[in-house]
């Protein structure tokens, strides 16, 4: 049986399937920078130690959805919290490895 794009029932059914996806939770994370150090250096870190990141002040941060790079943005302050203003949407996502 051929799919009929003019069938109102089929359109409503497809819309309800897509609508169900809107309730699926996703993990959104923002990476402000990265650093690579040796284990010995990691073990010597103490309170007050500064870990230098690979980003300069004012450079865009990376925004990931479920470990896929989707956008870049700028850090902003919202009330007393940090936020991100999206400045660029990435065309094809890049999957990163995370170990939580």
From TrEMBL:
Gene3D superfamilies for this protein: SpoA-like (2.30.330.10)
Protein localization: Cell membrane; Bacterial flagellum basal body
Pfam families, sorted: FliMN_C
The keyword Ion transport is assigned to this record: no
Matches recorded under InterPro entries: FliN, FliN-like_C, FliN/MopA/SpaO, FliN_T3SS_HrcQb, SpoA-like_sf
Domain Flagellar motor switch protein FliN-like C-terminal: 22-90
Topology of the protein relative to the lipid bilayer: Peripheral membrane protein
Similarity annotation: Belongs to the FliN/MopA/SpaO family.
Protein name: Flagellar motor switch protein FliN
Organism from which the protein derives: Thalassospira alkalitolerans
């Amino acid at each position: 049986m051929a799919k009929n794009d003019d069938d109102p029932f089929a359109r409503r059914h497809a819309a309800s399937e897509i609508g169900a996806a809107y309730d699926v939770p996703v993990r959104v994370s923002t990476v402000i920078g990265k650093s690579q150090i040796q284990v010995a250096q990691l073990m010597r870190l103490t309170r007050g130690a500064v870990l230098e990141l690979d980003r300069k002040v004012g450079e865009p941060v990376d925004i990931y959805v479920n470990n896929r790079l989707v956008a870049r943005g700028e850090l902003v302050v919202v009330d007393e919290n940090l936020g991100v203003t999206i400045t660029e949407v990435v065309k094809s996502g890049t999957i990163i490895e995370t170990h939580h």
